[in-house]
């Protein structure tokens, strides 16, 4: 009876994590699309300074992680020093900025699809630089994802979607997304290295260090000279409180979403988190298509299913690998 109660508790916690990640990041996607495509005020002005979203996100997550460390930290120390995050902070500042800037040139569903292809640069670098040989199922996953994204990019986008973009330019938009992925790869590798060197580093420590340097770099970039774009962004928010409110909610969603990701990884592992975030991306595309006026053609939906079939198969392969490792450990 006690085991049954524990199992039910575990299911309820998992459902709580799924609901938290989905609601936070799906709503954040809606807000991001609103800020990047909406016209504000009687003069129908666009918010052109999308990099300001990253600065605002850094500041909110910096404050949030500091509060969480003060509340939950045991005070033992031993984590990575704050200054060790400086290099990862650079790529973590440039990468997301490119991803957000891409929304000026391609639609939100296209951006989500492009940013779902992390496995492509990883496998490409692994094969060309390190001579790693992958299995046929892994190549099949990559083919489905790469083929789906490529076909989606080549298909004609609806005129309604194009009219919402600031400067429609598919090659530039997709290029920015793939550069975003490349910088993310370096960021993740650096974080893993710090975690290995300083095993006592918590998720909150990483969040604090990354956002501290992100805040420093973004403040320099956006306010480092008299006519920098940050002053214009602040002025725009003062003139259009609706935009300021959307940006604030966008940042809060990011901080809350990080909480649920940390909880999911700590309770259920990274594979469960990957599954939840991957399905969230698919739902984000559906929400964008239905609510935000980004209609997709039948062929484009086919590409979306092609990409997420590849991602789902990749998750299944990881699950199989995990099962084999667990069996080996039991046998030992």
UniProtKB/TrEMBL annotation:
**Membrane listed as a keyword:** yes
Q: Where in the cell is it found?
A: Endoplasmic reticulum membrane
- Specify one Pfam family: UAA
Which GO terms of the cellular component aspect does the record hold? endoplasmic reticulum membrane
The record describes its membrane topology as: Multi-pass membrane protein
Molecular function (GO) terms for this protein are:
antiporter activity
Give the family per the record. Belongs to the nucleotide-sugar transporter family. UDP-galactose:UMP antiporter (TC 2.A.7.11) subfamily.
Could you identify this protein by its name?
UDP-galactose/UDP-glucose transporter 3
Biological source species: Flemingia macrophylla
